[in-house]
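Hey,
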Amino acid sequence: MEGVIANSNGKIWVFIDVAVQMEILMNTDQQLSLKLHHQDLGTDFIAIFVYAKCDAVESELFDIGFKGSPFTWWNGISAGDCIFKRLDREVVNQQFQNLFSNIEVEHLSRTGSDHTPLLLTCGDGNVTFSKPFRFLNFWTNHESFKELILQNWSSEVVGSSYLNFS
């Protein structure tokens, strides 16, 4: 399958968007290092995926948080000795954060492993949600309706007046 790579023992799986070309720099049982080229941005970056316990090291990497379940690992025991932990995380440096203004990590549903897959989405942050305006006739019966409309129509607009309606 194009856009999918697994490390040598199949413990690390990476799914890459079609706009990204990848080159394998290192592939071991514990690590998968990729050089990624984002075609739309014309930018190269290195991504390193590690399957191991990582101690905190002094670095310029930032945990970018997540949405979804707070846990990424389960010990597989459903009784009293059940343990859930957040072992897996995405960390990025400042340059990566500057490259993508909208970075999001989602903890997906765990299937076939004791670890939860992580989905890293990088976007330009220009996502807008359009909420259509709906006029409701009962507003005209409100005692301050006419005054409010006159006040807003006569106020000074800074910038494009069309922006006030979006």
